[in-house]
Amino acid sequence: MAEAHQRRMQAEVEEMVQSLERDHIRKMQGRMFGCSADCCDRSSDSMSQVHQCIERCHTPLAKAQGLVTSELEKFQDRLTRCTMNCNDKAKDLFDSGAKEPAVRSLMDRCVGSCVDDHINLIPSMTRRLKENLESIAE
């Protein structure tokens, strides 16, 4: 992917991830640590019971992190498929006898279109992630 397109995509995704972390994940981390501390305060419990309690405290955060990772992987896979299609179009154009500047131009437009299309998907992906994170937190 051309560097400018890659930087633009990376900035958009980073902004989304930081927003999710700040508004949802961080709160879940706080609850997890508080819950884990409460488990450690249970002096009558066995070591095994305390360990199980701590594991239960970690479960929602682990689910949330897995959810975000999975969604980002799917997003990356879709973007990769789109850019691979651009590579195929560029190769086909080059094989048909087009000159390098025309192929580069096609590739830049095509990848730019992929980036634009996928940046437009970020708000719905963010909304879906927020809804799912809120349901985990409950």
Total count of helical runs of at least 4 residues: 3
Helical content band: over 70%
Structural class: mainly alpha
Any idea what the radius of gyration is? 22 Å
Order of helices and strands: HHH
What is the distance, rounded to the nearest whole angstrom, between the alpha carbons of the first and last residues? 40 Å
At a glance:
The protein is an all-alpha fold. The chain has helices at 3-40, 47-95, 100-137.
Tell me about this structure:
It is built from three helices and no strands. With 138 residues, it is mainly alpha-helical. Helix 2 packs antiparallel against helix 3 (100-137). The longest helix is centred in the middle third of the chain and has 49 residues, at 47-95. The model has no long low-confidence stretch (mean pLDDT 93).
